[in-house]
Amino acid sequence: MSKEIQFYKYQGAGNDFILIDNRNASFDANNQHLIQNLCDRRFGIGADGLMLLQNTNNYDFQMIYFNADGKEGTMCGNGGRCLVAFARDLGVIENETVFLAVDGRHDATIQENTVNLGMIDVSEYHMDADAYVLNTGSPHFVQFVEDLTHKNVYQDGYAIRNNDTYGEKGINVNFIEKEGEGYFVRTFERGVEDETYACGTGAVASAMSVALQSAKDGDFQIPIRVIGGQLMISFHKTGNQFSNVYLSGPAIQVFQGKINIS
After folding, report:
1. For residue 3, how many other CB atoms are within 10 A of its CB?
2. Could you tell me if 130 and 239 lie in one domain?
């Protein structure tokens, strides 16, 4: 027996998501095959991931995130920004919020289509040869490269994500290059298993890698260009400690509709 569900499609710097208002708890979050099919770009709606907006105690809402493979994922920065815009558009919030995600509490503000999202503090990283490895809500491998425009990100990112070190749990692979006053970043995302147009937690990890490379402390504001647009990352750095971390960028509704599911 099939039923009809209402969905919304949002994108944040080209990172696109299916959003569902699940405050009535009617969506089957355990149906991995369904979520995978909805995210399929040929047989479903098509998206990098799917998110549920749900009720929870002591917060405005709860964010439940699934990768395109149908499995529940770790924190998604651009997804979080899109869900804030969704909550505003639904009338759940006005222009500021505190919500709960898989990695804990997040605060955010929204002005028109720009969302400034608070991210978790980071206090640990390690090196893998010349690459920085750190967790900004999701695990990231950040490598500085040259001629990033022509790099085969799928091939090289796939190899790192599936190597002996990271293959079991997977890792997001970010390649970064200096560009004018900011940086250009391209990402191979686990769970999508392909290059995406943007990755919020990856942009944050990349910006932190820039700060670690500089060995300076203080307040940083680092522009990060991704294939799908422009993001801005800000934080305070003291040694290896990152606090007051924010990810800012666009979050826009693309379309909405209804789909029959069995």
Report:
1. 9
2. yes
Backbone φ and ψ of 30, nearest 5°: -90, 0
Q: Which tokens hold the place of 164?
A: 């002996």
Whether 82 is catalytic is no
DSSP letter (8 states) at residue 70? S
User: Which of 13, 76, 119, 212 is flagged as catalytic?
Assistant: 76
Dihedrals φ, ψ of 144, to 5°? -80, 130
Catalytic residue among 199, 205, 208, 233: 199
Residues 97 and 157 placed together within one structural domain of the fold: no
181 Cβ contact partners less than 8 Å away, ≥ 6 residues apart? 223
Quote the number of domains for the chain. 2
pTM over 0.85? The answer is yes
Do 195 and 257 lie in one domain? The reply is no
| Residue span of the structural domain in which 94 resides | 3-119+251-261
**Degrees to nearest 5, angle at CA 17 with 169 and 44:** 95
| pLDDT value of residue 2 | 76
| 200, 187 contact by CB (below 8 A) | no
Q: Does the pLDDT at position 64 exceed 80?
A: yes
Rounded-to-integer distance, Cα 232 and Cα 168, Å? 32
Quick one: 71 and 161 in the same domain?
A: no
Q: Give CA–CA dist 78/24, Å, rounded.
A: 24
Which position has the token pair 């990810």? 247
pLDDT at 141: 98
Q: Nearest-CA neighbor of 203 among 174, 180, 227, 182?
A: 174
